[in-house]
Design goal:
Blueprint: H1 3-23, H2 39-62, H3 67-82, H4 84-99, H5 101-111, H6 115-129, H7 138-158, H8 165-168, H9 186-194, H10 197-220, H11 232-241, H12 243-251, H13 257-278, H14 283-286, H15 293-307, H16 309-326
Length: 327
Protein backbone atom coordinates (compact mmCIF):
# COMPACT_ATOMS: atom_id res chain seq x y z
CA UNK A 1 0.00 0.00 0.00
CA UNK A 2 1.62 3.23 -1.15
CA UNK A 3 1.71 6.54 0.63
CA UNK A 4 -1.05 8.06 -1.47
CA UNK A 5 -3.53 5.33 -0.52
CA UNK A 6 -2.63 5.62 3.17
CA UNK A 7 -3.18 9.37 3.04
CA UNK A 8 -6.53 8.93 1.30
CA UNK A 9 -7.62 6.48 4.01
CA UNK A 10 -6.48 8.87 6.76
CA UNK A 11 -8.34 11.79 5.19
CA UNK A 12 -11.44 9.61 4.80
CA UNK A 13 -11.33 8.71 8.51
CA UNK A 14 -11.06 12.39 9.44
CA UNK A 15 -14.01 13.20 7.18
CA UNK A 16 -16.03 10.46 8.88
CA UNK A 17 -15.23 12.07 12.24
CA UNK A 18 -16.34 15.44 10.90
CA UNK A 19 -19.58 13.97 9.55
CA UNK A 20 -20.37 12.24 12.83
CA UNK A 21 -19.68 15.31 14.93
CA UNK A 22 -21.56 17.72 12.71
CA UNK A 23 -24.39 15.67 11.24
CA UNK A 24 -25.44 13.12 13.84
CA UNK A 25 -27.56 14.04 16.82
CA UNK A 26 -27.08 12.48 20.26
CA UNK A 27 -29.94 11.95 22.66
CA UNK A 28 -31.14 15.16 24.29
CA UNK A 29 -33.59 16.10 27.02
CA UNK A 30 -33.89 14.40 30.37
CA UNK A 31 -31.34 11.59 30.66
CA UNK A 32 -31.10 8.78 33.21
CA UNK A 33 -27.52 7.54 33.31
CA UNK A 34 -28.64 4.38 35.09
CA UNK A 35 -31.03 3.44 32.30
CA UNK A 36 -29.14 3.30 28.99
CA UNK A 37 -31.40 3.06 25.92
CA UNK A 38 -28.99 0.86 23.93
CA UNK A 39 -25.76 -1.13 23.86
CA UNK A 40 -23.67 1.84 22.68
CA UNK A 41 -24.87 3.99 25.56
CA UNK A 42 -24.50 1.14 28.04
CA UNK A 43 -20.86 0.35 27.29
CA UNK A 44 -19.43 3.61 25.93
CA UNK A 45 -21.44 6.81 26.37
CA UNK A 46 -22.88 6.43 29.86
CA UNK A 47 -19.69 5.00 31.43
CA UNK A 48 -17.79 8.05 30.14
CA UNK A 49 -20.55 10.34 31.43
CA UNK A 50 -20.52 8.68 34.86
CA UNK A 51 -16.73 8.92 35.02
CA UNK A 52 -16.88 12.64 34.22
CA UNK A 53 -19.52 13.29 36.89
CA UNK A 54 -17.67 11.22 39.51
CA UNK A 55 -14.33 12.91 38.83
CA UNK A 56 -15.93 16.36 38.79
CA UNK A 57 -17.61 15.80 42.16
CA UNK A 58 -14.40 14.34 43.61
CA UNK A 59 -12.30 17.29 42.48
CA UNK A 60 -14.94 19.76 43.72
CA UNK A 61 -15.01 18.06 47.11
CA UNK A 62 -11.29 18.73 47.47
CA UNK A 63 -11.93 22.41 46.89
CA UNK A 64 -10.36 22.71 43.43
CA UNK A 65 -12.30 25.08 41.13
CA UNK A 66 -13.30 24.29 37.54
CA UNK A 67 -13.76 20.66 38.54
CA UNK A 68 -15.56 19.50 35.38
CA UNK A 69 -12.81 20.89 33.13
CA UNK A 70 -10.17 19.10 35.19
CA UNK A 71 -12.25 15.93 34.97
CA UNK A 72 -12.14 16.17 31.16
CA UNK A 73 -8.38 16.67 31.30
CA UNK A 74 -7.93 13.62 33.56
CA UNK A 75 -10.10 11.54 31.22
CA UNK A 76 -7.98 12.72 28.29
CA UNK A 77 -4.75 11.74 30.05
CA UNK A 78 -6.22 8.34 30.95
CA UNK A 79 -7.20 7.72 27.32
CA UNK A 80 -3.74 8.75 26.12
CA UNK A 81 -2.06 6.41 28.60
CA UNK A 82 -4.35 3.55 27.57
CA UNK A 83 -3.55 4.07 23.89
CA UNK A 84 0.15 4.82 24.46
CA UNK A 85 1.43 1.42 23.17
CA UNK A 86 -0.55 1.82 19.96
CA UNK A 87 0.50 5.45 19.60
CA UNK A 88 4.14 4.46 20.07
CA UNK A 89 3.83 1.90 17.29
CA UNK A 90 2.10 4.49 15.13
CA UNK A 91 4.89 7.04 15.55
CA UNK A 92 7.59 4.43 15.05
CA UNK A 93 5.85 3.34 11.86
CA UNK A 94 5.70 6.94 10.66
CA UNK A 95 9.39 7.46 11.39
CA UNK A 96 10.30 4.25 9.57
CA UNK A 97 8.24 5.35 6.58
CA UNK A 98 10.06 8.69 6.56
CA UNK A 99 13.43 6.90 6.61
CA UNK A 100 12.32 4.82 3.61
CA UNK A 101 11.33 7.84 1.51
CA UNK A 102 14.65 8.05 -0.41
CA UNK A 103 14.38 4.36 -1.36
CA UNK A 104 10.73 4.84 -2.30
CA UNK A 105 11.78 7.70 -4.56
CA UNK A 106 14.31 5.43 -6.25
CA UNK A 107 11.63 2.80 -6.83
CA UNK A 108 9.29 5.41 -8.30
CA UNK A 109 11.97 6.57 -10.72
CA UNK A 110 12.79 2.99 -11.70
CA UNK A 111 9.29 1.49 -11.94
CA UNK A 112 7.19 4.63 -12.33
CA UNK A 113 5.56 3.43 -15.55
CA UNK A 114 4.79 -0.05 -14.25
CA UNK A 115 2.34 0.48 -11.38
CA UNK A 116 2.00 -3.19 -10.54
CA UNK A 117 5.75 -3.72 -10.37
CA UNK A 118 6.12 -0.54 -8.32
CA UNK A 119 3.52 -1.76 -5.82
CA UNK A 120 5.24 -5.15 -5.54
CA UNK A 121 8.66 -3.58 -4.97
CA UNK A 122 7.24 -1.17 -2.37
CA UNK A 123 5.60 -4.02 -0.45
CA UNK A 124 8.89 -5.91 -0.64
CA UNK A 125 10.69 -2.85 0.73
CA UNK A 126 8.19 -2.55 3.59
CA UNK A 127 8.54 -6.23 4.41
CA UNK A 128 12.34 -6.11 4.48
CA UNK A 129 12.27 -3.02 6.71
CA UNK A 130 9.56 -4.51 8.98
CA UNK A 131 7.23 -1.56 8.37
CA UNK A 132 3.44 -1.72 8.33
CA UNK A 133 2.10 0.98 5.95
CA UNK A 134 -1.21 1.03 7.83
CA UNK A 135 0.41 1.26 11.25
CA UNK A 136 -0.23 5.01 11.43
CA UNK A 137 -4.01 4.72 11.00
CA UNK A 138 -4.88 2.23 13.77
CA UNK A 139 -4.71 4.63 16.77
CA UNK A 140 -6.88 7.13 14.90
CA UNK A 141 -9.48 4.44 14.20
CA UNK A 142 -9.48 3.48 17.88
CA UNK A 143 -9.86 7.08 19.05
CA UNK A 144 -12.83 7.64 16.73
CA UNK A 145 -15.40 5.85 18.96
CA UNK A 146 -13.86 7.45 22.05
CA UNK A 147 -14.27 10.91 20.56
CA UNK A 148 -17.81 10.19 19.47
CA UNK A 149 -18.62 8.65 22.87
CA UNK A 150 -17.30 11.72 24.71
CA UNK A 151 -19.31 13.96 22.39
CA UNK A 152 -22.52 12.14 23.31
CA UNK A 153 -21.51 11.88 26.98
CA UNK A 154 -21.27 15.67 27.28
CA UNK A 155 -24.81 16.05 25.96
CA UNK A 156 -25.98 13.24 28.24
CA UNK A 157 -24.51 14.95 31.32
CA UNK A 158 -25.95 18.29 30.16
CA UNK A 159 -29.39 16.64 30.29
CA UNK A 160 -29.01 15.96 34.00
CA UNK A 161 -28.58 18.08 37.10
CA UNK A 162 -25.55 16.07 38.27
CA UNK A 163 -23.07 18.84 37.44
CA UNK A 164 -23.91 22.19 39.11
CA UNK A 165 -23.41 25.38 37.07
CA UNK A 166 -20.49 26.37 39.29
CA UNK A 167 -18.56 23.28 38.15
CA UNK A 168 -19.23 23.84 34.45
CA UNK A 169 -16.98 26.89 34.05
CA UNK A 170 -13.30 26.55 33.17
CA UNK A 171 -11.12 29.61 33.64
CA UNK A 172 -12.39 32.11 31.01
CA UNK A 173 -15.02 29.73 29.57
CA UNK A 174 -18.38 30.22 31.36
CA UNK A 175 -19.95 26.87 30.40
CA UNK A 176 -18.21 23.78 28.98
CA UNK A 177 -21.61 22.46 27.78
CA UNK A 178 -22.05 25.44 25.44
CA UNK A 179 -22.71 25.67 22.49
CA UNK A 180 -25.64 23.30 22.79
CA UNK A 181 -26.84 21.12 19.95
CA UNK A 182 -29.76 23.47 19.27
CA UNK A 183 -27.49 26.55 19.15
CA UNK A 184 -24.70 25.14 16.98
CA UNK A 185 -22.72 27.94 15.33
CA UNK A 186 -25.65 30.39 15.43
CA UNK A 187 -24.16 32.00 18.51
CA UNK A 188 -21.37 33.48 16.37
CA UNK A 189 -23.74 35.70 14.37
CA UNK A 190 -25.72 36.65 17.46
CA UNK A 191 -22.57 37.59 19.38
CA UNK A 192 -21.29 39.69 16.47
CA UNK A 193 -24.61 41.53 16.14
CA UNK A 194 -24.71 42.18 19.87
CA UNK A 195 -20.99 43.08 19.85
CA UNK A 196 -20.52 40.68 22.73
CA UNK A 197 -16.74 40.45 22.40
CA UNK A 198 -16.41 38.68 25.74
CA UNK A 199 -18.56 35.81 24.55
CA UNK A 200 -16.70 35.64 21.25
CA UNK A 201 -13.37 35.43 23.06
CA UNK A 202 -14.65 32.89 25.56
CA UNK A 203 -15.98 30.38 23.05
CA UNK A 204 -13.81 31.09 19.99
CA UNK A 205 -10.40 31.16 21.69
CA UNK A 206 -10.33 27.45 22.55
CA UNK A 207 -11.11 26.33 18.95
CA UNK A 208 -8.30 28.62 17.78
CA UNK A 209 -5.91 27.01 20.27
CA UNK A 210 -7.09 23.60 19.09
CA UNK A 211 -6.44 24.62 15.49
CA UNK A 212 -2.89 25.78 16.27
CA UNK A 213 -2.01 22.66 18.25
CA UNK A 214 -3.48 20.44 15.53
CA UNK A 215 -1.34 22.18 12.90
CA UNK A 216 1.76 21.67 15.04
CA UNK A 217 0.95 17.98 15.51
CA UNK A 218 0.41 17.62 11.76
CA UNK A 219 3.72 19.35 11.00
CA UNK A 220 5.63 17.22 13.50
CA UNK A 221 4.44 14.03 11.81
CA UNK A 222 6.10 15.06 8.54
CA UNK A 223 9.75 14.77 7.58
CA UNK A 224 11.84 17.96 7.27
CA UNK A 225 12.40 19.29 3.76
CA UNK A 226 16.06 18.29 3.92
CA UNK A 227 15.09 14.63 4.44
CA UNK A 228 11.78 14.43 2.62
CA UNK A 229 11.67 12.90 -0.83
CA UNK A 230 10.90 15.39 -3.59
CA UNK A 231 7.61 13.79 -4.58
CA UNK A 232 5.13 16.32 -5.97
CA UNK A 233 2.21 14.02 -5.30
CA UNK A 234 3.23 13.51 -1.67
CA UNK A 235 3.71 17.24 -1.20
CA UNK A 236 0.21 17.89 -2.50
CA UNK A 237 -1.15 15.32 -0.05
CA UNK A 238 0.69 17.01 2.82
CA UNK A 239 -0.75 20.38 1.84
CA UNK A 240 -4.23 18.89 1.69
CA UNK A 241 -3.81 17.50 5.20
CA UNK A 242 -3.36 21.06 6.51
CA UNK A 243 -6.90 21.92 5.49
CA UNK A 244 -8.27 19.30 7.90
CA UNK A 245 -7.35 21.19 11.12
CA UNK A 246 -8.96 24.32 9.67
CA UNK A 247 -12.15 22.40 8.98
CA UNK A 248 -12.15 20.89 12.46
CA UNK A 249 -11.48 24.31 13.97
CA UNK A 250 -14.68 25.57 12.38
CA UNK A 251 -16.66 22.48 13.43
CA UNK A 252 -15.64 22.88 17.08
CA UNK A 253 -17.19 26.36 17.10
CA UNK A 254 -20.57 24.62 17.15
CA UNK A 255 -19.63 21.83 19.58
CA UNK A 256 -19.57 21.91 23.40
CA UNK A 257 -16.43 23.62 24.68
CA UNK A 258 -15.72 20.54 26.80
CA UNK A 259 -15.16 18.47 23.66
CA UNK A 260 -12.82 21.13 22.26
CA UNK A 261 -10.96 21.09 25.57
CA UNK A 262 -10.51 17.32 25.25
CA UNK A 263 -9.28 17.72 21.67
CA UNK A 264 -6.82 20.48 22.60
CA UNK A 265 -5.33 18.60 25.57
CA UNK A 266 -5.09 15.48 23.40
CA UNK A 267 -3.12 17.49 20.82
CA UNK A 268 -0.72 18.80 23.47
CA UNK A 269 -0.11 15.27 24.75
CA UNK A 270 0.41 14.08 21.17
CA UNK A 271 3.02 16.79 20.68
CA UNK A 272 4.90 15.55 23.75
CA UNK A 273 4.73 11.93 22.57
CA UNK A 274 5.92 12.78 19.08
CA UNK A 275 8.80 14.88 20.37
CA UNK A 276 10.25 12.06 22.46
CA UNK A 277 9.77 9.45 19.71
CA UNK A 278 10.24 11.37 16.45
CA UNK A 279 11.68 14.74 17.46
CA UNK A 280 10.37 17.99 16.03
CA UNK A 281 9.90 16.57 12.54
CA UNK A 282 9.11 19.22 9.93
CA UNK A 283 8.71 21.89 12.63
CA UNK A 284 12.37 22.70 11.94
CA UNK A 285 11.19 24.08 8.57
CA UNK A 286 9.15 26.68 10.44
CA UNK A 287 11.58 27.20 13.34
CA UNK A 288 15.18 26.34 12.27
CA UNK A 289 16.39 26.80 15.85
CA UNK A 290 14.65 23.50 16.72
CA UNK A 291 17.05 21.55 14.48
CA UNK A 292 19.46 19.26 16.38
CA UNK A 293 22.91 20.77 16.94
CA UNK A 294 24.61 17.72 15.47
CA UNK A 295 22.74 18.24 12.21
CA UNK A 296 23.80 21.89 12.15
CA UNK A 297 27.46 20.89 12.59
CA UNK A 298 27.22 18.36 9.77
CA UNK A 299 25.74 20.98 7.48
CA UNK A 300 28.30 23.65 8.41
CA UNK A 301 31.36 21.53 7.60
CA UNK A 302 30.88 21.09 3.84
CA UNK A 303 29.72 24.70 3.43
CA UNK A 304 33.02 26.00 4.78
CA UNK A 305 34.99 23.90 2.25
CA UNK A 306 32.91 25.09 -0.66
CA UNK A 307 33.01 28.75 0.30
CA UNK A 308 36.81 28.99 0.63
CA UNK A 309 38.58 26.30 -1.44
CA UNK A 310 41.83 28.30 -1.66
CA UNK A 311 42.34 28.22 2.09
CA UNK A 312 41.52 24.53 2.09
CA UNK A 313 44.27 23.82 -0.49
CA UNK A 314 46.76 25.97 1.40
CA UNK A 315 45.94 24.15 4.62
CA UNK A 316 46.46 20.84 2.86
CA UNK A 317 49.88 21.96 1.56
CA UNK A 318 51.21 23.09 4.95
CA UNK A 319 51.91 19.63 6.38
CA UNK A 320 53.74 18.69 3.18
CA UNK A 321 56.04 21.73 3.40
CA UNK A 322 56.83 21.02 7.04
CA UNK A 323 57.72 17.44 6.26
CA UNK A 324 60.12 18.58 3.52
CA UNK A 325 61.85 21.03 5.90
CA UNK A 326 62.29 18.29 8.49
CA UNK A 327 63.90 16.03 5.89
Amino acid sequence: MNKRLRTVILVSVLLIIAALLSGCSPATGSVDLNNPPGVWEQFVVYPIAKALVWLSNLIASIGIPYSFGWAIILITIAIKLATLPLTRKQLQSQKAMQDLQPKQKELQEKYGKDRQKLSEEQMKLYKEAGVNPMGGCLPLLIQLPILWGLYQALYAVAGTDLVPPAQRAFFWIPDLFFPTLAVGTNWLGEAFQAQDWGMLFAYASLPIIMLVTQLIVQKMTQAPKSKAAKDTQAQMMNQMMFFMPIMFGYITLGLPAGLTLYWTVSNVLSMIQQYFIMGWGAMVDWIPALAPKSAAVQIAAPVAVVQDPVQAEAAADKPVKRNRRRR
